[in-house]
Specification:
about 280 residues, mainly beta, Immunoglobulin-like, 2 domains, 4-stranded mixed beta sheet, Protocadherin alpha-3-like, transmembrane, calcium, transmembrane helix
Amino acid sequence: MKLLLTAVDGGKPPRSGTLQITVHVFDTNDNTPIFSKPLYKVKVEENVSNGTKIITLTASDLDEGINSDIVYYFVGNSNEKGSSIFAIDPYTGDVSVKGNVDYEENVGTELRVQAADQGQPPKTTHCKVLVEVVDINDNAPEIAITSLMSTVREDDKSGAAVALVMLSDKDGGKNGIVNCQISDTVPFKLQCSYKNHYSLVVDGPLDREKCSQYNISIVAMDEGTPALSIPSVVTVHFSDVKDNPPRYPERLINTDFKENSPVGGLIVSVSAYDPD
């Protein structure tokens, strides 16, 4: 600051003299740093690589020199998990990834950041950063199959339950919506009982004599992009039911034998079989 000082005497004519005064104002740390806004929101995809910058925080200070030099760091007990996943550059305010970002473990994190100038004593201010983790389809569906019986009677009617099928997927949103279907043509079908729970039921005539067991392939697929799927096989064994009469290989057998054959002599051997 520059001041011009003028001195005037009382003579006639008056005489005067001037003096320029330069005033240097020394800064004191009387201003608190201010963030550009008190709350920041940012989205980050899970499984993002370490070192990826997600946001830059900026605070300003009206002081000068070291009184306006700002250092950033995380504070608060709620940041214990967040600070293991994210890091902040103390001088630039850049927040970057340093750990595993996993939607299935944590869908969001609140970071509390403090900005402090380097005056004596320092003045501080705070802000919050809400980090929303965006789910990606990185988990395949899972299938759990529980058999209700060791074997299925070949005369069981349509609708008889054979096994219970339960689906699950750790992802969220459409990535976690799972559908399933039987990939083969078999006399069975899946019947939904409630969300992600199905019953494997008989859906046609069974015949142990034609096929004694079925290996049923069930495929579960989510609705993510790209979709992930997983197959699972359940083996169904059939138990026999007495539903077939004995049969001769031929309906008519012709044979010759000599006259005067001894009593008890063999004329012909006859056999029958039963497919049960």
